[in-house]
Amino acid sequence: MADSNTAPPPATNTKPEGSIAPNGQQATKDKKAAKEQKRERRAAMRAQQDAAGASSSAATKPGDARNKNATAKKSQGDSGSGKASAAGTSGPASSLDEDLTNVGVLGDASLFGNVTLPRSARLNASSWSTASAKATIHPAVLQLCHELSTFAVRGANQRAIAVLRALGTVIADYRTPRGAVLNRDLLTRVSQQVGQIVESRPMNTSTGHAVRFLKYEISVVDANLREEEAKAHLLERIEHFIRDRIIYAGKVIQSHAAGKIHHGDVVMTYGSSSVIEGTLLQAHKQGTRFEVVVIDSRPLYSGRNLVERLLEAGIPTTYGLLSSLSALIPRVSLVLLGTASLLSNGAPYATAGTAMCAMMAHGHRIPVIICCETYKFSDRIQLDSFVVNEAGNSSDLFSHEDLDFKTDSQLLTATEVGEQSRLKVVRLLYDVTPPKYISAIASEVGLSGTESVGVILRDYKSVLFGI
Fold first, then answer.
1. pLDDT in tens, 1-38
2. What is the residue extent of each domain of the chain?
3. CATH class of domain segment(s) 121-250
4. Edge-to-edge, what's the strand order for the sheet holding 341-342?
5. Is 339 in contact with 428 (CB distance < 8 Å)?
6. Rg (Cα) of the chain, in Å, rounded?
7. pLDDT at residue 267, as a whole number
8. Exposure on the CB side of residue 142, measured as CA atoms within 13 A
9. How many CB atoms lie within 10 A of CB 415?
10. Is 293 helix (H, G, I), strand (E, B) or coil?
11. How many CB atoms lie within 10 A of CB 45?
């Protein structure tokens, strides 16, 4: 016992001759050694606790997607649906996007973790029912969440308008609690609604700017206004944003970009863009005779609606998929493309397939004009599509004709794909077009107050996002 009490002092206090440094290096080494020993003891304790927790929860909690599938198989077997259990799914109601939510896109790497995966219909329904039971989320917002998650609302402008309209309904039905300040309490309520919207689908640049605009207007509302006056003011500001920043801005771009279309031109566009559609119709109303080539892609086939409206207006139109792009591009004289966002380095962040059209046109020396409102401008920079992106429902890529049993169709069904455990499905919604493939950027410039709106339509090489 005496040896154990006297052993530590020589190790810490007694130093041999010649080892004493004027700056106390030995004392520093002793402190570091003590800290290292303490870290090792803590790490060992954590390891023991983790091992104990894992052993106690292994019997009751599934650890991975494989255990979840096994649980689903057991429940399906009890209900009499043995065939769906053998397929390794939870029945015909389940879809491939639910499996991808568990295992990730492109394997478990999820494309470096920067791709937002879609939420399954079951998870969305559970979240909506919980929010409805708590009465914290407005019914208009819940309806919007359903439309966003099912891609019933498409396009950057449509999404921004739909979100502002839903939040306007929230403001119209709002009542200030007793003892609360309107702008502070309303800002908290609106933030709750926005959080629910983001859970259903990630917020894009245009919707983010619209929401920030509304939050700013709420924060600066005059405290001397009565509740009804303040709400009327906020609703008027919402209409002002929709009218000036979206509708009027689009009309200005359409009127100026239509001047770039000449007689005999063959204009190509991709997918469906409200600004591009308005530009083509405006040029046709001005008497310009031209043709349009609409390039489309599955599974949304959004270009079909554009083709119908162009044909109704009497514009000769050619429709083709991305696979026919190389055959149609030689006869094109101008390319007009819309975008969901314009990054700060001038790169359009648009629907997947836009980059392919721009690069193909650049290879054939065809001018490419990007039409974009200023409220879609982003301060973010991306060099590729994997930095930030969003994945769609992968089950849309497969046949839904028969989900109960295998068919002779050339397209795989979601049930058949569920049997292939080694098959991973990727459906990215956006891509990034390098700025060097863009000939010009058409955008409006909104001035302060009620002044007029100007337009910028310049060669990209002479202007870098400086509007």
1. 444 444 444 444 444 443 444 444 555 556 666 666 66
2. 121-250, 262-462
3. mainly alpha
4. 341-342, 348-351, 430-432
5. no
6. 30
7. 97
8. 16
9. 25
10. strand
11. 10
Q: What angle do CA 264, 267, 270 make, to 5 degrees?
A: 165
| Alpha-carbon gap, residue 365 to 375, rounded angstroms | 30
Q: Can you read off the two tokens belonging to residue 374?
A: 């200023």
Report the alpha-carbon distance of residue 1 to residue 31 in Å, rounded. Answer: 25
pLDDT tens for 78-92 read 444 333 333 333 333
pLDDT of residue 192: 92
Strand partners of residue 292: 267, 317
Pair of tokens at residue 383: 């060099």
Fold observed for domain 262-462: Rossmann fold (3.40.50)
Residues 6 or more apart in contact with residue 189 via CB below 8 angstroms: 170, 174
For residues 438-454, one letter each, b for 16 or more C-beta atoms within 10 angstroms of the residue's C-beta and e for the rest, the string is bbbbbbbebeeeeeebe
| Omega within 30 of 0 (cis) for the link into 299 | yes
Q: If 0-12 CB within 10 Å is exposed, 13-18 middle and 19+ buried, where does residue 321 land?
A: middle
Q: What is the pLDDT of residue 165?
A: 95
Residues of the chain with pLDDT under 50: 1-24, 56-109, 402-403, 405, 446-467
Would you tell me how many other CB atoms lie within 10 Å of the CB of residue 204? 21
Q: Kindly tell me the burial class for residue 425, based on how many C-beta atoms sit within 10 Å of its own C-beta (0-12, 13-18, 19 or more).
A: buried
Q: What angle, 0 to 180 degrees and rounded to 10, lies between the N-to-C axes of helices 227-240 and 182-200?
A: 40
